[in-house]
Amino acid sequence: MTNKRAVITGIGVVTPLGNSLEAFWSNLVEGKSGVGPITHFDTKDYTSTIAAEVKDFNPKDFVAHKEARRMDRFTHFALAATAMAVENAGLNIDKINRDRSAVILGTGVGGLQTLEDQHKVMLDRGPDRVSPFFIPMMIANMGAGQIAIKYGLRGCNITTTSACASSTNAVGEAFKLIQRGQADVVISGGAEAPVTPLAVAGFCSMKALSTRNDDPAGASRPFDAGRDGFVIGEGSVILVLEEMEHALARGADILAEITGYGASCDAYHITAPDPEGSGAALAMKMAIQDAGIQPAGIDYINAHGTSTPLNDKLETVAIKEVFGEYAYKVAVSSTKSMTGHLLGAAGGLEAAVCVLAINRGIIPPTINLETPDPECDLDYVPNTARKAGIAVALTNSIGFGGHNATLIFERFNLERAAAERVL
Q1: In angstroms, rounded to a whole number, what is the distance separating the alpha carbons of residues 325 and 10?
Q2: How many Å apart are CA 269 and CA 84, to the nearest integer?
Q3: DSSP letter (8 states) at residue 274
Q4: Are 224 and 320 part of one and the same domain?
Q5: CATH code: domain of residue 293
Q6: Containing domain of residue 325, as a range?
Q7: pLDDT per residue over 162-179, tens digit each?
Q8: SS (H, E, C) 23-83
Q9: Which residue of 59, 175, 184, 303 could cross-link 100, Cys pair, CB 3.0 to 4.6 Å?
Q10: 164 among known catalytic residues
Q11: What pLDDT is recorded for position 44?
């Protein structure tokens, strides 16, 4: 076993709050909502008619027209975010060892729109009219595959599918790949495009979505007593992870270091979280131990915070179990109040939020927190961003099937790194 260090050198975003890093961050800290009426399809028969859609996105800005027609929307998002992340990292693909460059991407459902479209083609026109590109457009691993094909990255290529924890697991496994000395560079994060007729119908049938249709911007309200469900979202956020020496050798601007990863399972229920939060608490404890720090060393928690009655309550319980009395002192916020819930891509987005919060010294708020739930009584940074010196940030993800994952990021200390290299 080796113990290499992994750092973040680039971020790319395609989100409901903007398709550039600066637009996304500006809208996030200003407390703007990316939620609005669904425009992708007719919602007249749906109980929930709102979503956090990506706006003003043209895949042909990133992918040739012919190739774009052979990809699902989630893959368009993944390739676009990757292009921006690679540029943000200042990474020259021609100068890296492509055999030691990997892609680990998370997605919950993959090419669902393609599946729906081609199923209709089969029913309406017969099986011989189904596109020959149906399978390679739809399968969940194709986002990662297409990234590798575009950049010629021949290292490990994996797609993690663990519901809403998918891209948190992806980034965690990317961290471990570097830590073990098996990769110099890993493109990681998540991509999801689930604002489709079938997906929204399914979540409506579960009564999981907010029905605050007359107030889209106020619909996602984590930890608020009036919360009534999550708001579905779409997009992709990609991080460039590098082995520290590799990043320093090329003079990269290091945004943060990833130091902890924990993953667990509730082993309780297919959709409902463990009401005692034991699985989520276990993931946090594992990540804290992995990072070699104490709970009181955490300055900021980006909560899973979905705005569902059960999730917000159990996550609060889990935080209290892990942090004890310090739970009331650490800042906690849910950026899903603004971005909606990107399902399998949510963890990648929230990992990026932690990196940016450390890098820029601002904690994004939890908007729409007007009437606090008495059972959710922590400091959720309500409604207004907060300037703060953040050295260590933690992010949680909790998914159907009982999946839990936690990541820890720390401010990178170049002087400490240089001293350790001398030793």
Answers
A1: 35
A2: 38
A3: P
A4: no
A5: 3.40.47.10
A6: 261-411
A7: 999 999 999 999 999 999
A8: HHHHHHHCCCCCCEECCCCCCCCCCCCEEECCCCCCHHHCCCHHHHCCCCHHHHHHHHHHH
A9: 184
A10: yes
A11: 96
Q: Do residues 241 and 385 both lie within one domain? A: no
Contact call for residues 103 and 187 (beta carbons, < 8 A): yes
Strand 185-192 versus strand 331-333 pairing type: unpaired
* Shared-domain flag, residues 245 and 266: no
Residue 351 contacts residue 239 (beta carbons within 8 Å): yes
Q: Which amino acid is at 231?
A: V
Q: Which of 164, 204, 354, 376 is catalytic?
A: 164
Distance of CA 168 to the CA centre of its chain: 6
Percent of the chain exceeding pLDDT 70 equals: 98
Q: Which of 155, 344, 157, 390 is nearest to 237 (CA)?
A: 344
Output the six-digit token pair for 281.
């608490």
**Using CB atoms within 10 A of its CB, is residue 50 exposed (0-12), middle (13-18) or buried (19+)?**
buried
CA distance 106 to 359: 24
Residue 155 is given by DSSP the state: S
Q: How many domains in the chain?
A: 2
What does pLDDT average to over the chain? Answer: 96
